[in-house]
Amino acid sequence: MLSGVWLGAFALLTVLGSLLARRLSQGSWLRTRQRSQDLLGYLLPYTVPALLCLPLTLYVSHFLQASVGRALALCLAYATSSGIFSTSMLLCVVVMFNVGHKRPAVRIIRDYCPKPLFLIGFLAALSDALTSPQIARQLGGNITSSVAVFTGLIASIIFGLLVIRLRRPVAHLIRNRPLAQRLKQPSLQESLRIFSGLWYWPIVLMVLVSAVNLIGIGEDNQKALRCALFTTVLLIGTVFLSTILQHLFKSRKAEAIQRSSAYKERFLSLLHALLRIVMAIAFIDILGRIWGVSLLDFAQSSTIGRAISNALSSIGLIFLVTWLLWVVLDTAIQEALKPPVSKRSSRQPSTRVKTILPLLRNAIKIILVVICAITTMANLGINVAPLLAGAGVVGLAIGFGSQQLVQDVITGLFIIIEDTLSIGDWVVLDSGHAGTVEGLTIRTLRLRDGKGFVHSVPFGQIKAVTNQSRQFAYAFFSVQFTYDTDVDKAIELIRETGDSIREDPFLKYNLQGPLDVFGVDRMDLNGVVLTAQFRTVSGGQYAVSRAFNQRLKKLVDNSPDVHFAQTYPQQVLLPKRQGEGELVASEVPQRSST
Predict the structure, then answer these.
(1) Domains of the chain by range and CATH?
(2) Residue-wise pLDDT tens digits, 381-418
(3) How far is Cα 355 from Cα 422, in angstroms, rounded to an integer?
(4) Whole-angstrom distance, CA of residue 366 vs CA of residue 323
(5) CA-CA distance, 339 to 345, in Å (whole number)?
(6) pLDDT tens-digit profile of 409-424?
């Protein structure tokens, strides 16, 4: 009779709730709101009848005598109402996510979840009801406890399987957010992405722990499962915090890069690394406490622990100071080598700076590493005095045995300090090597010649250096004309060629001044030599010389009064008596000295 009362009341309220929900959904306010319609579709036909039928059944039960049937009916009514209520409420929560790209995941959950959720709620509530003392007196303690354990165990297993089955749809609901929110809060998005992949592990472990507690396995196993649960929660929390810190520092570093603050960027990276180290230490300590081992207590209570902690703290301080010094010095060197963003408002780093600073950076790195290693060994209790003495003796022996190497290093050091040559210069050595300086080490100079071959020359072999790439150069022209050439016209053509070079949009950037025409430089048997020159940037004299020669040749070819000196025989009038003393022309071969 009680079951019939509950069933009739629930059927009546469900029909009325369905009709009311359908009537309200046809209203103008709810017609365009799908989520509100879905909420009414769960609340009115299921949630409200489940809440009202249980008190009604309890009220009717007061008019009946206590019996086994009454107890069973109340248990079933409580379990059924609880299952329906929990299922409808969870589905109402799921419906709230039914928007945008989350709709497929919501549809999968709504299609798959109702029956398993009802079964889980029904079995869990039935297990809870059977453990009640009033029910146990009516049905018997042994039966109720056995059935309660069995139903609770089945509910836990079904719940665990449901969580595993729905891990991907729920992960989709967790991490899928609108594009504007993803771009505005990247750290939160990354945290949600990680959480979406790990959310079900703590729940599965909790289900496992509850199942073990229901079965009643030994205390040691229960403790191990609880420790595993806490370890999982700790791991997920650490990953969350690490991800948030990473994105927080990433955004700060992006701001520092936009503001061209290299020191702030490097210090933020250092701070981020230190925080990660602190998090790792805290994680290890908390993990040890979960499993019954405390590293902090070990470091404070025992002599060995104190010694180890003091040594590790000293070594950590040494590494921190070394790291900090390296960050400061390396950032200064990198900033000096970095080309400015605006070439007009900022000075470009010189080739001397580009040559010396990389060598200085490597030297600083080696010095810091050696000092850090020596101090670390000293804090570990290693006697470094014999090592230093042995290193000094070995260094002295190496110095005597490799005098040429020492000579190369010292010579190269003075060449770099005196700025004799730099990377990118075109140099000619007294050894006959010529080419562009591509690299400098502490011992050798690397040149690439005009054919593309690379030459490595030790500094000790360099006695004289001719650097053709410093400040400026001269494009010198020496042109020889015949004696019958109009010199003024030739000088005019040379000036005209110089003007065309200065007006050329590609060549004018190589010039540092106008064309200087020196006039007649000399006269010899072959003709008149005129000289001129351009002052150009380093390396630009070659392009200017080629262009000048080409253009002057074209102008002279089109001029009838100007002729280049020839290398083939010329007609020259020489006095020669023939017959009555007439002067005749005879051919005398003349060759130009040019």
Answers:
(1) 1-176 (no CATH), 295-399 (no CATH), 409-467 (2.30.30.60), 472-568 (3.30.70.100)
(2) 777 777 777 777 777 776 666 677 777 777 877 777 77
(3) 6
(4) 13
(5) 12
(6) 778 777 777 777 877 8
